[in-house]
Amino acid sequence: MKNKAEILVIYTGGTIGMVEDPETGTLNPFNFQHLTAQIPEIKKFGFRIESISFDPVIDSSNIHPDVWVRLATIIEEQYENYDGFVILHGSDTMAYTASALSFMLENLSKPVILTGSQLPLGMIRTDGKENFITSLEIAAAKKDGKALVPEVCIFFEFQLYRGNRTHKYNAEHFEAFRSVNYPILAKAGVEIKYDFSAIHYSSNQEFRIFTELDINIAVLKLFPGISQQVVSSTLSIPGIKAIILETFGSGNAPSDVWFINELEAAIRRGIIVYNVTQCRGGSVNMGRYETSIGLQSIGVVSGHDITIESALTKMMYLLGHNYSPRILKKYLETSLRGEITVI
Ligand code: ASP
């Protein structure tokens, strides 16, 4: 039996992978072929660490579902060769990538930890070193031969989050992510303390990936004064299959007759309307207020306490299966990877 943990690091891009050229002072992408030479501390783990670097690397604002397919495919191809995976990624869209992968990697039994940083690895005050080193440790962590955290996670600033519950909430602070509706999976202090009751352990079914994402989706964010023209043109985008309706509070929307009529007509045309709250904490509860009863009665689907990042990627994943509207709605209201709290 092997005694060394084996970790694959996949570097997609983002701030973390920059180092300062000692001569010119400019920031250049880090050479991941010489990982241990550049961060000698990680040798002390005694792990076998290998890396794959995207070429060219991408700022995470340029992330596209094709990149998620590429990441899922790398993980599938290398699944048996490693104990865990660390993905280095820009923080801007990291919550989307983590959410997407949580759906695409089916029956996952190994850790997939996404991390990055607000300051490049090459800068003295970087948060990247701690984020990276602890992510490696978590990706390698096992008990009785089984991974401690067999989930797609984000590790950032001492905290491990379920990826599909996160959003980036701060563009400056090292603590850039939040998971408002789900507990932190682990905290890294003097020791890494895991909350085992919050971590999901999947059944022993065979790992596989799903890559047929369907991007025929739009987000319609409500605001006081939204016009019929905006609503109607969004709902009539050619080829559109689902609308994420970003509602107020616990899933509320204007009660104007034209508004409900537009949505009802779209639902009759087969468009799925998915109610996701603009609030970062709490849940949609249609029927609680009069301003959501109309939505409920025309067949709008509740997003419960899902994040917008998870709602979008879950919809892409489910639409890709070509399910009937009835089955699709059932899965939207079911927790597939711990992304919603269904009471
Ligand atoms: N713009 C960068 C990105 O998301 C920021 C970061 O790496 O945190 O790729």
Would you kindly provide a written description of the structure presented here, covering whatever features stand out?
There is one protein chain. The protein folds into 2 domains: 6-209, L-asparaginase, N-terminal domain (Rossmann fold, 3-Layer(aba) Sandwich); 217-332, Rossmann fold (3-Layer(aba) Sandwich), CATH 3.40.50. Helix content is 27%, strand content 21%. It is built from 9 helices and 20 strands. Helix 5 (228-235) links the parallel strand 17 and strand 18 (242-247). The radius of gyration is 21 Å and the shape is elongated. The structure holds aspartic acid (ASP). Aspartic acid binds at residues 13-15, 59-60, 90-92, 116, 118.
- Counting DSSP H or I runs of 4 or more residues, the number of helices is 9
* Helical content class: 25-40%
> Low-confidence parts lasting 5 or more residues at pLDDT below 50?
none
As a whole number of angstroms, the C-alpha radius of gyration is 21 Å
Task: Let me know the CATH homologous superfamily of the largest domain.
Answer: L-asparaginase, N-terminal domain
Strand content: 15-25%
